[in-house]
Amino acid sequence: MHQLLRSIPAIHGMLNDPQFRNVKETYGLSDQVLTSLIQRAADALRQDLIAGIKPVNSSMKSEVLERTNALAKKWGKNQLTRVINGSGTVLHTNLGRARLSERAVEHVTEIASSYSNLEYSIHEGKRGSRHTIAENLIQEITGAEAAMVVNNNAAAVYLILKGLAKGMEVIVSRGELVEIGGSFRVSSIMEESGAQLKEVGTTNKTHLYDYEEAINEHTSMIMKVHTSNFSIRGFTTSQSRKELVPVTDAHELIYYEDLGSGSLIDYQSAGIGDEPTVKQVIEAGADLVSFSGDKLLGGPQAGIIAGKKKWIDKLKKHQLARVLRTDKMTLAALEATLLHYLNLEALDELPVYRDINISASEVKRKAEHFMKRMSHLGTITFTLKACTSRIGGGTMPEVELASFGLHCQLDSYAPHELEKKLRLSEPAVVGRFLEEKFFLDFRTLTDKDIDDLVIIFEALDQRS
């Protein structure tokens, strides 16, 4: 073993070797980067040898060279890359949630590539505030007196609790102490904010008197967390804003509702879920509402706070507002996204809205058209299959959308092998397994995705 380890060439020797210099020239590396890659390759080889893993090449130099070349091939490539989403989950948390509309992408590009009036009032010729950029649009769409934007909804929750309830009690039903993505819990966020959690009721039942009996001179707020990412069934009782707003008004408390998903469209009227709109919550008397920008709203990651002006103004002045603020590209994307809601005819340009509302028959048509384009392949078989899609992104957990997709089978390859091949293609293709076969749900596939899939499958067919 010791002899094997000693046979790995010295780093400085490999650095000056013509073959390694060729790697540098091929991938446009600096000496510093090349040295780092050679060291990483040699270290990995050393660890493999210690673990008893035999090298592929006969010489240690060739082994390090091959590993260095593999590392160099990846070097300088974007780590954040496009993925074809064939899972059927519209708001796929791991795949970036909402896709932006073309209008939003164009606006982001324009603002990112030039100077802008981010904090400058063109009309008055003096310093302005980034808080005003999306505020008027949010007010118009939701009916709120005021609004502000931070970098995500967890930040919105934290700012509200920190800014308006620090050192005071906030009443929350036990049935709403949820954990959101990445193991962030409402109770933990509240603890970090300095607000004191006052749990009431039980996991499945919270009565109005539970809230009323918990109110004392230290109470600042009643917080309701909308259960958009989970569902409790059976023997349950909960209190709606209709019951809670009069209680907060009578005791001069803040009524704050964390909606999470942030729907601006009444999907209920189309028979899709039971998610309330932000406007409905505002009209019901909520003092504050917070929600995400990249879920049902269909925009960039952001946390939007809407509600009574006196509370929003206080939050805008809080020191954390600067810490949690969004950048110009996020505001540009959000502004362009919100404009879709002022012109309802433009909603079909919003990918999230379009993907949720597309009919199963239209999805089926897309899948059938793809099959016709693929009919010349010799080693790949596609089988049309009815399925159900999910909205995802922690929204409408029980909602299933009728859809269609294709079982994909490649001769001599197991389903998991095909899945890996597609996942490692460029662009990466992510699907799911249905009935133990690899499956692509066409609900979430764009025309560009489908064109790329044609090229990817044709290449797989030729290599088989």
TrEMBL record:
The protein's annotated pathway: Aminoacyl-tRNA biosynthesis; selenocysteinyl-tRNA(Sec) biosynthesis; selenocysteinyl-tRNA(Sec) from L-seryl-tRNA(Sec) (bacterial route): step 1/1
Classification via InterPro entries: PyrdxlP-dep_Trfase, PyrdxlP-dep_Trfase_major, SelA-like, SelA_trans
Subcellular localization, as worded in the UniProt entry: Cytoplasm
Catalyzed reaction equations: L-seryl-tRNA(Sec) + selenophosphate + H(+) = L-selenocysteinyl-tRNA(Sec) + phosphate
EC code(s) of this entry: 2.9.1.1
Top enzyme class: transferase
Tree of life domain: Bacteria
Modified residue annotations for N6-(pyridoxal phosphate)lysine: 295
Sorted UniProt keywords: Cytoplasm, Protein biosynthesis, Pyridoxal phosphate, Selenium, Transferase
Cofactor(s) the protein requires to work: pyridoxal 5'-phosphate
A Pfam family this chain is assigned to: SelA
GO MF entries: L-seryl-tRNA(Sec) selenium transferase activity
Protein biosynthesis as UniProt keyword: yes
Keyword rRNA processing set for record: no
Family to which this protein belongs: Belongs to the SelA family.
Role: Converts seryl-tRNA(Sec) to selenocysteinyl-tRNA(Sec) required for selenoprotein biosynthesis.
Protein name: L-seryl-tRNA(Sec) selenium transferase
Organism: Thalassobacillus hwangdonensis
